[in-house]
Every structure is written in C-alpha cells, then in structure tokens.
Amino acid sequence: MELTDRQKQILRAIVDIYVSTAEPVGSKAIAALPDVKFSSATIRNEMAELTQMGLLEQPHTSAGRIPSPAGYRLYIDELMQDYRLSLDETRTLSEALELKSQEFDRMMSQVGKLVSKMTNLPAYTVATRQSEAVARHFDLIMTAPGSIILVLMLSGDVVKNKLLKLPVHVTEQELKLLAAVLNASLTDLTAEEIGGDLLEKISRSAGAAAPLVPLVMDFTLECLRQQHGDVHLTGQMRLLGQPEYRDAAEKAQEVFETLDEEMLTKLPAVLPKDGPVQFLVGPENVARELKDTSVVMMRFDIGDGMQGTIGVVGPTRMDYAKITAKLGYFAENLGRMFQKGGNATAQTPALPDGAKDTDS
Amino acid sequence: MELTDRQKQILRAIVDIYVSTAEPVGSKAIAALPDVKFSSATIRNEMAELTQMGLLEQPHTSAGRIPSPAGYRLYIDELMQDYRLSLDETRTLSEALELKSQEFDRMMSQVGKLVSKMTNLPAYTVATRQSEAVARHFDLIMTAPGSIILVLMLSGDVVKNKLLKLPVHVTEQELKLLAAVLNASLTDLTAEEIGGDLLEKISRSAGAAAPLVPLVMDFTLECLRQQHGDVHLTGQMRLLGQPEYRDAAEKAQEVFETLDEEMLTKLPAVLPKDGPVQFLVGPENVARELKDTSVVMMRFDIGDGMQGTIGVVGPTRMDYAKITAKLGYFAENLGRMFQKGGNATAQTPALPDGAKDTDS
DNA sequence: CTTAGCACTCTTTCCTTCTGAGTGCCAATA
DNA sequence: TATTGGCACTCAGAAGGAAAGAGTGCTAAG
C-alpha cells in the first residue's frame, strides 16, 4: 500500500497548511494551491482514500481533514522538506548564540531560553552523562572560621560546590592537607569504586580535618551518581500562544504536570544512537495527557562523556521542518563550541541561505 | 474617614470570602456568617458606603461586591489576621524543607519549586547582593591540555566557574603560579578597584600563562559586577489553576511577559528596609499588564552581603494571610540555615499549631 | 480516470428569551 | 436615629432555536 505521488503531494499539502492555520484543511484549499493541477473533487476522492489508510482524520463529517499521528509520522519520515533558514533567521540566530561567556549551567539555561524565544514554544535543555563520572579535582576554601567551600570538579568539565559548616576548628594548613589527600586518593574513581574502607583511610590521613571527610565523601558520591545536570525548562507559557491550548488552560497545565523534570531527563534516552534528532508525536508519547502534544529533541556533543539535548514542546500540529532546522542550527553551533573550543562564543557557520518563510 | 468596627468587619468578611470563592460577595452571604449580628439590609447600606470610599467595587449593578486594590491594601495593612499554619502544614513544610544537600544555586531553585507547590501558585527566588562583591579565591585546574577550568569564589560564598580553552600550551606548574599571583593581587578588590594597570602587572608576573590573564580578568569583572544570582521562576502554569486566568490564557501569558527575569530581579529593591515582607497589589505594580496580579515577596538573610528573596505571584484575589504565613515559614528556616550553619538541612522550629484551614 | 453539480451534514454564530442573584430605596420598626 | 423587611428593578449568564456556511460524498457526464 504505497502512496502514489499525488497522494503524497496531497498529504504534504494538508500537513503544511494545517501546521500554519490550525484549521482542518478542505479540498478546495488544496485545489487552490498553485502547483495542484487537479480538481477539488479528485482531491476529495484521494482524501477519502488517505483517511481510509489512517493517515488523515476528520473532526466531524462536514469538516476538512487533519493529519492523524500516523500521517505526521509519515510526513516527518518521508515527506518533510528541509526547511532552509532565511538569511535573516541565521543572522538573528547567530546573534542570539553569542552567549555571554558564562558557566556551563547558565549557558544551557540561556540556550533553552533562546530556543524557546526563536520557536515561540516551550523549550528545554539537559546535559546527560554518557560515561561513568569520576572526580577530577578537589578544592577546599575557607571563607570564615568554620565555614568551608568544597569545590569539586568532575569529568565532563562539570564543577560542583557546596558550603560546609563545621563545628570543629580547622586551620588553613590542615585544609590544604586534606585537599591533597582527597586529590590523591579520591580522584579518577567511579561511585562504585569508592568503598567504605576508603573513607576510613582518608579520615586517618586527614588529621584534624577528619570530621570533614564524611561530608565531602557524601557530596562527592551524590555528585558522581547524578546522571544528568539540571533540566532547564522555559517558556511554558508560550504553549498558550498555540490555538489548541488557547482556551484549554487545563490541558496546557496537564502537559507540564506530565512533562516534569523527571520525564524530561528520561526523554533523551529514547534518542536513537545514530540520529541526532527525534520526534515524539502525539500518542507515541508515553502518557495519555500528551495526546495532542509533540516533542522534538536534538542532541549535541559536549565531549568528555557528556551530551546535551535541546528539545521543543509543542502541539502535535507544529512546524517540524522549521523547528528541526532551528534546533539543528543551535545543536551544530553548540557542538562546535564545545568541541573546538574558543571561549564559549558561537561561530557563524556557512549555511545555505534562505527560501520560503512562513512565520509560525 | 476612619472605618467603623462594623465596616471593618464587613470589609474583612468580603475579602475572606472573595479570596476563597473568587465570586463577588453579596450582602446575604455576609449576613449568613455566624458572627454577623445585623441584617443584609444594613450590610447593603454599609457596602454602599464602602464602595463610595473606594474600598469595594461592583463588577456590574446587580452583582455582589469585590475588594478594590485599595480595599486589599487596607485589608493587608490592618485587617488581615495572622494565618496559623496547621500542624499538618508545618509537618509537610518541614519535610519539604529537608532539601537535598546541594549547591547554593540549586537550593534556591529547589526552594522556589517547593514554595510554588505549597502555595499552588507561581513562585520565584533570587539572591541579591547587598554589598560590593569581591573575589575571595581563584583556582585554575587543567582538565586536558589547553582546557582549563577557572573556579572563582566570591564574597557571599558564591562560586562561579568557567571553562577556558587556550591556544597556547601551559604547564601545571605555570598554572599554579598564575593562581598564586591571582590570589595575591586580585582578591578582596571590588570591580572599581581593579584597574587597567593591574592587568599588566599580573600579566608580567604570570610568565607563560600570561595569555590567560585577560580571560580571567574579564570573567572576574563580569562576576563582580553581577548584582544578583539567577532568578528561578517556577510553576508558571499554576497560575492557570486560578479562576481568573482559567479562560484567559492571553492574560496569563502577558503576566509573565511583563514579569520577566529582569523585572523580578528588580522587585526585591522595593522591599522596605525594615519589613521582611512586601505586597504588590494590582495597580500598585508598575505595569498595566499586571492589573489583576499581585506579588508577595519575602526576604531572608543569607549573610556575607547576600540576601535572598522568595516571592509568589498570583491573582490580586489571593490568600495573603496564608501565603504570608507559608513564605514566612520558609524564610525563617532558610535564614536559620544560612546563619547558624548545619549542613543545609532545615530545623523544625516551634510554631504555634494550627487553627482554621480553608484550602486555596 | 477526472470533474461539475447537488443534496446532505454538522458546526458555528447570532438572536431571543428567561432566570435568578443582588441591588437600592422606602416605609415600618425598635 | 439606626436597623430591618419588603419590593421593584437591573443585568449577566444560561438555554434554546434558527440561519449561515463550509465541506463532504455521491452521481452522472465528459
């Protein structure tokens, strides 16, 4: 049951139109397209056929057609045309990408905001650890008597810190010693490799700073066990800009109750190992609450066992082509930034310049 | 034009009822209250009077009354009864406050989430710097050849870090030297006190690591100039749970377009120096878009020149008493945590146990 | 195989009517 | 004089239709 070229053309047209109007598409609307050479009656017949095949749906008898989830899937997999960013868009994007030099976490959060702004949809970012984490470096800094900051550097260039308040008094000298011991014995070990005997051993070598050791160990283990960085979800409210949520506040609320941080951290796992982009369309999604909601995710490489994911949440009717293009641009640039270096400022890559642009 | 006791009683009743029902309050509803000893006709007369004074409003001729912004203001300033958290609530709150030991920034974000969950409204947290920031400690850690992490500790126990990628090769030894130089000459200086000659001086002493110096300086200055930490705004969607926004997605969207991060960072500044809590009611707010929206903010002390703010965003009709109580509980505990120490785990303070509890 | 035409369906919109909550005012009452 | 019961009046919102319009499926002709 392969589709004929004409059927493909019609399906594509329906998705394209529906994506931008959010209204069911009638046969006349398609017949009116410049490169459609057949009549609305023919289109009606084909549409009946496509509906039969489960690629289209009819909200009610006398309405036009909308794509079914299967229809979207086919569109995404086979019919979608590469959306080319217009010159204007690339310019805006690369300006936006000139992230203020910042810490990693802040940058991820900023990227999320940018993506959300550019797509006018909710967006999120996560950093996921690919390989087992190990500690790379310990640092103990006294800020006031009894107040110590532990700075812990992990693989993946992740830096964590924690304020430790201490009942006993410790001198600067003793702190230095403890830091040295930690760096000597606790680095380059995975969480599993750190056993109980190590705690004792370190405590013995730590002298007066020994009471600090369990606190440090706890925090270290906690950090090592953390599989992913913070989830930065922003622009939730933009979902309300979409017609399907405009008067369905409840639905929008449900979406984010389901799509909480936990869920979002798990999503990157479904990304296929090879492809950098993944579409979760409607009911393919795990939860029923997300029936009309889709997620587009894209992965980029951070290096050193870490991997970033940017995602966009929107109605199932969303402009997959455009969003994929935009996400792709971000992912490419971010990947470049992390790989090649340069101090966290984006390059402007050569991109094919723009064609059609219908604003979402 | 002082209010009589009876007028006060009526105004208070109207606010109390309206807050929980979100419906205009009629004279009968008030007359039905157990401790109201006069008839609905009398109440009607008083209500007409209060309306005259601008404390009440009438959505339309044949509807009940709702408090005007001035009415809320008077309620908050004079009429509001202390809401006592019930035992159940304090238990839930103190369980919630057992924050996972974490870095400061994460904790602030977690607090925001908790507050939002407890109040069922959007909430935010910010840390604001009260005094001029200075650097306390520098640390340079090589993670790979050409890849260096700068860890910078500021006053207020704030830790920042940044990945520096370096074109030239630098040895561990040279990095140590540079760190020592930085710690000797760049600490305890405010942004203003760091001048151009310092850059040169440090570069000269830095030897082979000299190319790093401007990068470090830039980042340092950037951090020192930062007046506040990240804003953590969460639970925006909960605003939709409120009847006034239920079918007014647009309005909800506008609220957060206006109340963006920039705005939120500025809000704590309006907090009076003495009181720890501040109410922004409807039109008192800066922007017209926030007409029906109010913000309750509470400050808590972090120590070392830093100050935290937690805030809740909601409809002007919100349960100020209850929200103040809950925020107060958080603020108190957080203050305690930061002041006294203990490793970032909340104590359960003795609180008067509960009375009335109408769920919002 | 395609197309024009037409009857039919069903949503959406616009009116109209109706209901009920709540008011303001007046006259009676304590 | 302050309070109260009573009553006419107002107005938003619900409920019920009627009309409009978009789009379909089917049939018969090209």
Largest interface: A-B, 52 and 51 residues
Largest sheet of chain A: 5 strands, antiparallel
Assign a percent range to the helix content of chain A.
Answer: 40-55%
Strand and helix order of chain A: HHHEEHHHEEEEHHHEHHHEEEH
**Mean pLDDT of chain A, nearest integer?**
87
Number of E-state strands of chain A? 10
- Secondary structure tally, helices of chain A: 13
Strand percent estimate of chain A? 15-25%
> Oligomerization state of this entry?
homodimer
Report the radius of gyration of chain A as a whole number of Å.
26 Å
Task: Indicate the low-confidence ranges of chain A by residue numbers.
Answer: 344-360
Between the first and last Cα atoms of chain A, what is the distance in angstroms?
33 Å
Q: Could you give the order of strands across the largest sheet of chain A?
A: 7-3-10-9-8
Question: In one word, what is the shape of chain A?
Answer: elongated
- Structural class by SSE content of chain A: alpha+beta
